[in-house]
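Loading example: each entry is read as three labelled lines plus one structure line.
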Amino acid sequence: MADQMENAAPADRMEDAAPILQLDHVSKRFGGLLAVDDVSFNVAKGEVFALIGPNGAGKTTLFNCITGIFSPTEGRLVFEGRDVAGHKPHDVAELGIARTFQNIRLFGYMSALDNVRVGQHVRMRAKLWDALLKTPKERREELRVTERARELLDFVGIGRHGDSYARNLAYGQQRRLEIARALATEPRLLLLDEPAAGFTPQEKVELMQLVEKILGQGITVFLIEHDMKVVMGASRRIAVLDHGEKIAEGTPDEIRNNRKVIEAYLGKSA
Amino acid sequence: MIRLRNVTRDRNQLVYLILIVGVLLFPVLAGFVSPGDSGNYLLGQAADAGVYVLLAIGLNVVVGFAGLLDLGYAAFFAIGAYTYALLASGQLNSSPLHHAIHLPFWILLFVAVIVAATAGVILGAPTLRLRGDYLAIVTLGFGEIVPKLFLNLSQWTSGVNGVSALDYPSLPIWIEGPWVGSSLSIVRGFSFAFNSMAYYWLMAILVLIVVILVSNLQRSRLGRAWGAVREDELAADAMGINTVTTKLLAFSIGAATSGFAGVFYGSKLSLVSPENFSFVVSVTILVMVVLGGMGNIPGVIVGALAIYYVLFNVLTNLPANAKGIANAVGLGFLNRPAAGGWPGLEQEVQRLNFLIFGLILISIMLLRPQGLLPSRVRKEELEKGVAE
Amino acid sequence: MSIALQRTRSIANGRLGSLLLLLALCVVLIVVGQRVLSGGLSFFIQILVFGLANGAIYGLVALGYTMVYGIIELINFAHGDLVTLGAFIGLAFFPIFGLVEGKDLGIIGVAALAAVFLIAMVLTGGINVLIERVAYRPLRNSPRLAPLITAVGMSFVLQGIMYLWKGAFQIHVPDILPGTRLPLGPGASVGVKDLIVIAIAVVLVIGLNLFIDRTRLGKAMRATAQDRDAAQLMGIDINRTIAATFFIGAVLAASAGMIRGLYFNTVNFSDGYQLGLFAFTAAVFGGIGNIQGAALGGLFIGLVKAYGDAYFSSAWTDVYVFAILILVLVFRPSGLLGMRVPEK
């Protein structure tokens, strides 16, 4: 069946589109544990790509490798033609990859607005002296950034909560705020780590709409998700990870019918 | 900076307003409360308190803004003070250099800032990736090493005797008037020596400058980056903030501020010796910051003034005051040493000082763990950010 | 951040850093080696024993620091003062138990001394439990630095109480341990006292280790240190466990104070502050939260100080200690035995 998938080449096949991110035989080893085992795939520009797999399959580890939190033991991570493996997280963010976290990591004792403005940090140009002396240039930039931050809060649908401490927001609002903060870094590739975790069905629908909107801004979305409805509904293509290895890759339909994938999720007996 | 219409809405601005009025009125009050020389004494003490205000603001950048625990902050204070001491006195004449250097105060303000900031970078660059309390112990170690260096390098610093006879700041022009008991006139070649009024105003201006600069930083991208690093370093990194540089800047800006304070301190006291920069000084400054309200500049200023007042006014005068009160209410016999080891009330109260200070620290923290004037949701500030 | 210092890579990560460290080590070894050779082997051993005795005292104090830190992440600045307090309390019981200078200890004397140790340890422990109850427990969920400041305040309070009690003098502690010295070689000897100090410390550390490894309370402590909430869910009484930690820390501190008093025959109300500083350094040095690390760190600092004093200038000893500490932390950011905490 896997072969069949490789040769199917449906019309909306996106592998041929220019890849924004290429994973080239990436492995990550922690001591004796091979968390990511020789994984290769491409994320094409302008698509929604999903990474799924059972718990502990190495999905978040892979995200951490891409965003520089871990350095992969082997392999190349090519983002827009540049190998970013081993880059520091802040360098990766500056290059144009932003992310959210599985276990929300907002700046709790800062306002929602400030959280977003922190995201814009990397696109700001004010130097130390500008900040010390509040030069007109710095003031203009602050103004612009504040305005943009409000837009982003509106964009994710929490515009009214800009002045609350991030920790005081409701769970769903915190997830949205994390997305707004990530968007503030002006990424071209957005990594979402289980964005729908803990969401109600209604919120999941809204999330899928949000992902579409983000896509509409020309930002490629790469997400990890457990919820199959979200994955199948939102993504164009899917890769499946199990025990650190990629066991399948393809369109939602292909994945849904893939024997290996079904085995991985339900056990061999199924 | 202060707009009256907002005063009622913003507690911080109210505190600033009270502080500014207080600073303006204090010389008048000091002269009024105790005319003549002791008014000058109060002004001098206020200027000394200003040194601690500067130090507290500087440490607040490190601890309050960036969330880095610094237990050796006095080291940078020492570096600033010694920079002044060596470059504005006859000291280097008796050193291996055999040549005294007398740079003017105003230039050394900047030199010391640069030297202290550089020291901050030198300490910070290799150590700032340490986590939490490991960084605290490194700064503690640095705080122990620096005074020891000044103590041991005695051919340069005269060791335990310290560097004395430092130059006083001077100005080409100064105005004198009725406030110092003379008629209004312009003085040329004015020296600050023993002129508490001059030091007082100099300190007020220094504090004002530092408050403005640091407040500006707090409301800039750097201030937000500090907040992010304080809250969640990894997330900050992933959002594109170079955490090492950000922390390094907090460290060096904090150090720079204490360099400022050190120069003023040296010039006013005209004496700098290693024992003035011990661990106790670092802890005292930290207490000022935490007690005042970490991260909130007016809170930190109030904390510094309150602790300074308790330490150097209330507690130092307490024994004498206790004696006076005992005499006044007819308990004068308490003042005489008596059998059973009673050393007399004055002595006994003196012995109590440690205990009283400790109890004050504990009770304030228990009553207000977040400090006297904590930072709070910066709601109005945010709104203004858009309106401005 | 585009402001200055674009890339401050730690030299410690690179090969250059390791090379520099190795080079520095070689230089130090050569210099030290030269001094040691010129001083003779027996002198070297004499200093070794002296350093170990001192280090044993630091280690005992460091254990308290490390345990308290391990369980509630508090740098307990008042801990050093418990050492002095223990010595003061013990000293008050010396005359009652007939422990006076110039008398051979004998069996009864040893028993009396043990009793005094026990009393000082239990009382100091009780006081520390009380301190925890009053000054730290109410702040357990407050901003992290609040309990740090009450700890500083507590340090002042303890010093103030001792100052009121005995004044600012150096207080003589009766010299009741045997003053015999075992000859080592030309001009060098080892005091029986030193050996006694080391022996007591070793017994206490082994006892502590057994306690933490084997007993229910010890397990509760480890569990609480790992994850307080989870421990609570498993039915561990957190308050009791933390109180017990403070008790044991103070017991060790008091024993260190007694040993120190008997060893140096003098104690002052403010001794604890400097001692505490070095003990804390020892705890961090070994990897804070790590019991063996604290003992090791204490020994290390005792040895560095002893050799620094003996072979170089005592004026520079503190500088060596802290410089080595900083270097070690730069290259091993979690101390000698500390574990790297992996972060997600």
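The first strand of chain A starts at residue 19 and ends at 30.
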